Amino acid sequence: MSDYAQRFIAHLESLHEHDRAALAALRRSLGFAPGAYPPAYPYVEPFVAAERHAQGASRPALYVVAGLYATHPRQAGRSLASSLGELMRRRDSAGIEQRFIALLGADAENLATYLRRVVSLLAAGDLALDYAALLEDLNRWLDPRIDPERRDLVRQRWARDFYRALAAPASERAPTPGNA
Hints:
This is CRISPR system Cascade subunit CasB. It holds the Pfam family CRISPR_Cse2. InterPro entries: CRISPR-assoc_prot_Cse2, Cse2_sf. By secondary structure, the protein is mostly helical. The chain has a single domain, classed as Peroxidase, domain 1, CATH 1.10.520.40. It is 62% helix and 0% strand. The protein has 9 helices and no strands. The longest helix has 20 residues. It is globular and about 45 Å long. The two termini are 29 Å apart.
């Protein structure tokens, strides 16, 4: 992961430890278009690089990830899709797969809404995810200038992660409170 993404996640972790009001503002920001909730600006705008276009993909990606982290501040080295596949395997719920497929079909305008629902499921299942990787993926997904085939590579990787986690044999599964 990039140093940029790692620094931003470290910033969010610091807010989680020291500033609950900041996390509340970031959670509330998910109810607005990414970057349209002024109380969240002090926590995200310092990471919007001057050389990046203000309307480019990195700014909304930062806001979406910040809001999602504030909703479920559990960072781990596991992709969102892998964690969701693990959750589906535990719960054996077709509804989780349906939400995942809807997420994969999301466009830039409604991606944050689908992600919020998926992260809420992960929070309920007490499963963490790699927010730095998510930030990098959203930078690609939300970039209108990127080749659509490159954007689809993110979706394809998420699908592979999800279905691999879903099909993982017991010996390869991450320890959970029930099987640790």
